[in-house]
Design goal:
It is a single chain. This protein is of the alpha/beta class. The protein is built from eleven helices and seven strands. Strands 2-1-3-5-4 form a five-stranded mixed β-sheet, with helices on both faces. The protein has a two-stranded antiparallel ribbon with strand order 6-7. Helix 4 packs antiparallel against helix 8 and helix 7 packs across helix 9. It is globular and about 45 Å long.
Amino acid sequence: MAEHILFVFEGEKTEKTITDSLLKNFIENDNRIVISSFKTDIYAFYKLMHEDEDLDVFALMKERNPELESYDRDSFSQLFLFFDYDGHSPSASDKKIRELLEFFNEETDKGKLFISYPMVESIKCISNLDAIEEFCNQTVKICDCSKFKRYVAEKAHKSLIHFNLYDNLIWNDVVRIHCVKANYIIKGNIVFPSNYFNQVDVFEVQKSNYIDKDKSVATLSSFPMLLLDFFGHQKLFTLVSGEQMEDGYVLSSEEEQHT
């Protein structure tokens, strides 16, 4: 029986640093997870998949990652892919993003795709861990995304600069804030999600309310979305808050966020 889980990232360094720290705090000692990288953007990934409808993601990753040599596709029970929206790319296409999200929608089959808007650095684009409303309303123009890394370096709170230094308290705040923002993007409420939503849901609202409206995206990281998917909204709420989720009770006010 396959026991491993494959994570496929767009890049090599930043994503691995985030994942190592995230897993240490949320899925400790889980040796099932194997990490690989595609080493280019989502639109190049789409091109390869579009050119060969029978192309297997694992076979593609094995070609690019020698460390996968000892595995075959049956070694993995789940496959997760993490890419950036990168709307400023010359190859950018919302049609391609939608197609990929609709195709890669099941981790036990072809794989499940998670998108960061506009890119992986969104996870630390938080200037004040107590100002959740400010983060919920934070957007970035697509035309400015090429300068997004520099923007994050200037804006991020000092405790969020180095991913490898995140402790459990910081991760709890970061994950909670991003989950609340995902709920805000979809439902307009600054509260922790009380039900499941998928990556297509997030994309469709990003497109209608931000991309098409004023050529921007609402900053949002894919990594907390993975945890929301993995644990479910009730368990993740308990993990990041220490409280049980009850009907009508969510972390929504600043007074509740740092008690």
